[in-house]
Specification:
Structural class: mainly alpha
Distance between the termini: 60 Å
CATH superfamily of the domain at 31-94: AF1531-like domain
Oligomer: single chain
Order of helices and strands: HEHHHE
CATH class of the domain at 31-94: Mainly Alpha
Number of helices: 4
CATH topology of the domain at 31-94: DNA polymerase, domain 1
Shape: elongated
Number of strands: 2
């Protein structure tokens, strides 16, 4: 009986850890690529450090605001892989939950 009890407890602990990690992963904080400063972009986008974040801001200042997140691939250093792993984090405009009445 003891091995079964141990395995059951271990299973419950592992499930609790998995559920906690899943909740944390779903609470991704998005960033508005048309208004964020370079430090915000670097902090919130995976694989984007200060150099790439500054390139995003420079591109935005030179070419105007982004109409769609896919336009980020036009920025030097941002490729399709970087874009794909950040799609859930990228937004254009204010967050959906802050709509005006």
């Amino acid at each position: 009986m003891r091995p079964f009890s141990f395995l059951l407890r271990l299973g419950l602990v592992l499930f609790a850890l998995w559920a906690s990690a899943a909740r944390a992963a779903s609470a991704v904080e998005s960033v508005d690529i048309n208004h964020a400063e370079a430090f915000e972009l670097a902090a919130r986008l995976n694989g984007v450090g200060m150099t790439r974040a500054e390139a995003i801001v420079h591109y935005r200042d030179t070419h105007g605001p982004f109409d769609h997140p896919d336009e980020l691939v036009n920025v030097k250093g941002i490729g399709p892989k970087t874009l794909d792993k950040n799609r859930a984090r990228i937004r254009i405009g204010p967050p959906a939950d802050s709509a005006s009445p």
